[in-house]
Amino acid sequence: MMTIERKPPLGKKVQLMATCLCDAFYDDAAVATVQVLEHLGLTVEFPQAQTCCGQPAFNAGDWAASRRVARHMVRTFKGELPVIVPSSSCAAMVFHGSLLAFEHEPDLPAVEQLARRTWELADFIVHGLGVTTWPGRFDAAIAFHRSCHTRGSNSAEAAATLMRSIPGVNLVEFGEAEQCCGFGGTFSVSFPHISEAMGRLKLQHLRAAQPQVLVGVDTSCLMHLSGLAEKEGQPVKHLHVVQVLRDALKNGGLL
Amino acid sequence: MKFQPIDQFATTLAPEKRQSVYGGTKATHEKRTKLLAAQFAEPDHLRRLAGEIKQHAIENLDTLLPLAEERLKAGGAQVHWAVDAEAARRQVLAILQRRGATRLVKAKTMVSEEIELAPFLESHGIECLETDLGEFIIQIDHDHPSHIVRPIIHKNRREIAVSFEKNGLGAYNDEPEVITRRAREFMRKKYLAADVGMTGANFVVAESGRLVVVTNEGNSRFSLAATKCHIALVGIEKIVPRDRDLALFLNLLARSATAQQLTVYTEFIQGPKAAGQPDGPEEMHVIFVDNGRTEVLASECREILRCIRCGACMNVCPVYRQVSGHAYRSVYPGPVGAVLSPLLAGEHFLDKADLPKASSLCGACNEVCPVNIPISDLLLRLRDKGKREGAPSPGLPPMGPWALLASQPLVWKAALFCGRMLDHVPGALIPVPAFHAWTGCRTLPKWRGGEFRKWLRVRKK
Ligand code: SF4
Hints:
heterodimer; A: alpha/beta; Rossmann fold; B: alpha/beta; 4-stranded mixed sheet
């Protein structure tokens, strides 16, 4: 959800907010983000002090704790450079969630300043840079899960546009595509039974479409869905959209 | 392991009930979406406009309510103000007793559920009959509504046939037509014998004092035709400023609630029977019920007062679909209830503080709400309020220490490194409930903490 006007990016340098999940589990998605941004001619800066966006505490209702993390993030990502996040959820935390949490705080302007230059990756490529087609090759039937934090933003449409343009990609349709997968951050562990039921429903729809790869813009949803599938003994191949973009470049000999 | 009450409830819900709820909500939601898209170029513009009008109305209740009162009185209605449930119940009883009335026929009103009117009246010897078919079935079953528009969405017709048989309404037959016919025959006699008819109101127009009541069964119309006295129970937030606003709201309400272009019956009521009119109640009372709404208006969640009770948010809600309305322990279930119920609970807020947590925050409700309420933001605000007021949060590790960790880069990096332990320590030894809640139904990917940073370092060299 967007609640703030964003500045168009200037210059050739960006900062990367890799997200805590990439830091802990999905390093290749972060690597792919760097490779893809560099392919686009950008210089990527990685502020070493970064940790998390604060969303777990925010969702859990501990806004004081989430503000502590958000303040750290504001300090870490100083300056005017666009901040690129390979996650619609963490990006939305910066440009929507934190604005709520800081509504009555004196340092709201600093949070807004960061919000105005923070982008989800696919949205940045398509709407920030104006790149709408992607070269290379990726031969697969892809089921694209539109995670819920793409609602009201341009991210899902941007990711789909890029993937559709890659030679070899076949985006398959599946039932109830707009429904939540049941991850929901802290919800996944505080409401595990409901979360599981929602995830199984999603998997059922996905499998019916017989994709070769499940792709998403958030590693969090992918971690939940693939974890469920693996526990069932029927693992699903899953990739972050940026891994598809990177692999397409590789397959096309462009990287 | 301790789970949240609603999650616990989900584990006990019969698969048959879940199927009824899931199937019913999904079908209505899909029809609604198709209908709006087919008939309006920009349904979202309409939702935004309706939201702005309703926001204006609730922020100007101090002038709009007195205006409505004045117009209602000019039309011959009597107007009463009830600060809380107790006052509202007493006012209804006083009207009935003054008329020596003992039989009330009642159309569907959520406010009457909210103030627990029926049991109160029955304890004073008043027969109180629900005339909405769904509510009637709830009444004979001693059940509770589980949806604000479709109170029996959790039941299938076989269960209904059984309760009809039990209640002497004919031998078992689960044909919907037969069930409806039997209910109608039973009710017709009751209407004719009733003393007072009660309705709610979907809208009250301030500038004209016009009450709008929509139904699909015509039961409110029957109540008004057959009785001499009409009582309307109305939440104070039902106000819209102008008659012309109704065009927008009626178009949105029917489509959002039941995927209809317009409800079958739409009544505009502007007072009791006037001189020269052959039919209609000779006495009309409008009871404006506050019951906590003023405090909601003063809170940071006031947008919820825009709600026109269409039920679209629960139809689309993936959590509601899994748990049914009864999981919410409230008159108002689903996303709207998860916001409204804790707020209306007033000093008992903490008893309901778990409701706003029963959401993956997917935001599907925001996209369907005909008055554009930012429901998921309000859920978040209430989680914050709950935390500040000491609500428990079973299943979650404390976030304070985590925030400390996540705001100190060196500690964070050390933790990324230490996380490797996860891959080697047997799960059973990890004393974190959230870990077990995760791994109960999912695997955890292999820990790769710090690997990305390593890649960056190596590359630089
Ligand atoms: S909150 Fe919105 S969608 Fe839900 S019942 Fe109210 S008006 Fe309908």
